[in-house]
Amino acid sequence: MNKTPHVQNSIPVLPWLRHPVDIIDFKETPVDLLPDLDPRLVKALKDVSISSLFPVQVAVWQETIGPGAFERDLCVNSPTGSGKTLAYALPLVQMLASHTVKCLRALVVLPTRDLAVQVKKVFDDIAPAAGLSVGLAVGQSSISDEISTLITTPKLEAGFCYDPEDYTANSSKSAVDILVATPGRLMDHINTTKGFTLEHLRYLVVDETDRLLGEAYQAWLPTVLHSARSNGEVFVHSVEALSPSICGSFKTIRRFGVERGFKDKAYPRLVKMLFSATLTRNPSKLGLLDLHHPLFLTTGQSRYAFPEKLEFFKVLCESHDKALYLVALLQKLRGEKCIVFTSSKKMTHRLCSLLKSFGVLQMKVKGYSSCQHQAVRSKILDAFRRGEVEVVVSSDNLSRGTDVEAVANVIIYDVPRYIKAYLHRAGRTARAFQIGRCFTLLLKDEVKKFKALQRKAEISAALFPLPTESIQSLQSDYLSALDKLKESVEFEASRKRKFNFKHSRPAKGKAKAVKVSKD
Question: What is the CA radius of gyration of the chain?
Fold first, then answer.
């Protein structure tokens, strides 16, 4: 009897996805032995305690600075925590440092502010050593403050008259070589910031590609590609107007364009690099990027790449009081950093409040969600890194790309609907080839769904039993915590009603004016 073919077999697969380069074939390499690495970057890496590069970093280096020489666009599918950020940051800095033109030449786009801030820190560790500056455009400060860090305008000389409009348009120039940005704020600068231009752009990195190609984010991509493509010829002519030595260094990159059969296109071409732990295989989405002879780098044969040393466990909850099992588990894990993932911002707030009300749980707990200001979230993460906070309760806001050192455990309180969400949550631990554990709390009606997720992800979760007596001993504290949570929720609801009532009433002046007009 013939088996029914799997649904995925009917999905068209792009030819280049069928012939990947396996990252596992590359070995961890000491920075001193990495071919052609700038000595200034060797020192900068060692200054931040990086003495060797992981396989994905070596693989990307070989395809950019090494024999690959940026001749193909790269699509990299590698587990969370495998070092993807440095994998693209290092070759970009090396290439840009070889040319002395001051303009925006590399753009890194990320889906969230938190991730963008983290990526900029990686660039900040190495770029200054090569004489490069890195900008951040994420909306955590006012746009005028951002503009002052991204654009420089020469000071007016005394005694001269200038046309202000002409002066601003023609004299402003980029203050950064590399820009790390979120899509929304990037579009703000493209559309409204005078002097901000992508006409010199040579490298585009799309980190967390599958998310940035989603419908909610797609508006930024055609704008960036059009700006870079339409201004490519302008860049070449402007470089040739500079000194012969600088012009000569840029002419060497013409092999990326005209010499490779792209006579009808602007050159140098815009080099694109895509990175994700769950890289999309959707042809229509990948087609939006207009990739040039793309090369696919991935880890093994599985589409969903989990960290190598990640261990999986499941906790079966006998009752619907899942929080009891969470507290019992946290008591077992006391002294280890834990991230607890929930299904929503509201659940994050409620669960965090409940955990704080447990008298027996002597652990510092903080909630983390997009409702908080960027500065507050950064403060919580810094305290978590220092060990001042042991448990962080979060929605998926913390699940993508965020790197926190020595997170021993991830606890998935609410099982996500999609495997990608599960992978990104689990990937907050076992980073940089360290050992980590992922615990999934399951109610009886969630067991079947979790089994299906395991099969798709090709993982196996061992049962992690919690003694019945440890659950029963928490009952009285649980009831007390629930009472405190109820009081807190009612108090917050009361404040919200008062706030809404106050702001829904017309101002006194307006009410009086209406009354006068009627008389």
Answer: 27
